Amino acid sequence: MAKKDDNYFTFPNGPASNQMMNVVHHAGNLDIFQQRIGENSHSTQLDIFVPNTGSTEVSQKIVYKTDNTETTIQLDNVDLFSKSKKPLKKILTYTLVKLSQNNIVEDPANDVKISFPLQDFVDLGSYTSLATARQAFNQAKNPLTSIKIEGLVKDKKDRQAITDSGIEVLFTGAHIKKGIVEIYLNKRINWQLFALQYFSILPKSYFSLSDNAADSLLNISILARKRISEIKKNGHFTISFRTLQQILDLPDENKTKNPGRDIKDAILNALDEINKNNDEDMVIEAVYNTNGNILQFLNDGYAKVTLKNQFQEYFTELADRKNAKIEQTMKRREEIADKAKVKALAEKMKKDME
Fold first, then answer.
1. Residue 199 buriedness (CB in 10 A; 0-12 / 13-18 / 19+)
2. What is the DSSP letter of 251?
3. Distance of alpha carbon 64 from alpha carbon 297, whole angstroms
4. Which pLDDT does position 15 carry in this prediction?
5. Helix (H, G, I), strand (E, B) or coil at 169
6. pLDDT digits over 294-313, tens only?
7. Are 263 and 256 in contact (CB under 8 A)?
8. At residue 246, what are phi and psi to the nearest 5 degrees?
9. Residue 52 in contact with residue 60, Cβ under 8 Å?
10. For residue range 26-48, what is the model confidence (pLDDT) as tens digits?
């Protein structure tokens, strides 16, 4: 078998970083994304604040809430994000991949940065040459360095802030120097809290896939981290076609003249492309009524994601660690309860003897 990390990268999978990724991925279509989140999720809320009519501002502030987080993301130039979204998504994803590989140390005497060769994007299949990779990076760097964030992460009874004081830019600078990409991290961001608490694995093939297939694969990898118990038990998990419609910003079935091409084919082609590039570790089966209409396809259809080899091993190990932690917690609770019972019994016996 290949070395464990031959086919995948470790990828940050914290709620706050995921929320930031969602907002960036759906820039330009956030109103539709907001509507679909409301329809598809009972535990997530998205509020969008836009400048008043007549304002010269082009920024957009988004408050993203779940049971455990409240994150505010601000995009300073929404049009810029929309125009640069295609190269930005993969460059931002690779930035987070490299972030997970680096030991980020808060050292005021030194710049906090991550760096990697521009050649990586060619080797991974994102671009065919250094020239096109450089062009894509230069197109993405301005929106990349204008993502702003603040938020709270709740852990049991604690509430921790992502930033030291108010809303902050995530990346303070980015450039290419002698073929090396350098991206500077804001020291006032709690990077551990923001992105480095939880991880998933992302197939390296992500970087060579078309836009729809890449977006689907990234979200499948993120979702797998949440479905570890299901993966351990069954070896697979499912993702609905309604969710994929949301992920891919596909049109509403009632607002397109050709839903078969614009929705159904877009989903099936993305899944087929993922299968062709990940057959050793992942098999995705599209389950739906082939004679049904588009409503039946979206409402009843789903992707069955079966993990194999190193992918299944990774998530099974996560499930084992989670179960061990739960068992340890339950044992401690039982011990505390037993001590309380013994103490109560001793106090009762003492009173009976008085």
1. middle
2. P
3. 29
4. 86
5. strand
6. 999 999 999 999 988 878 78
7. yes
8. -70, -45
9. no
10. 888 888 888 888 787 777 888 88
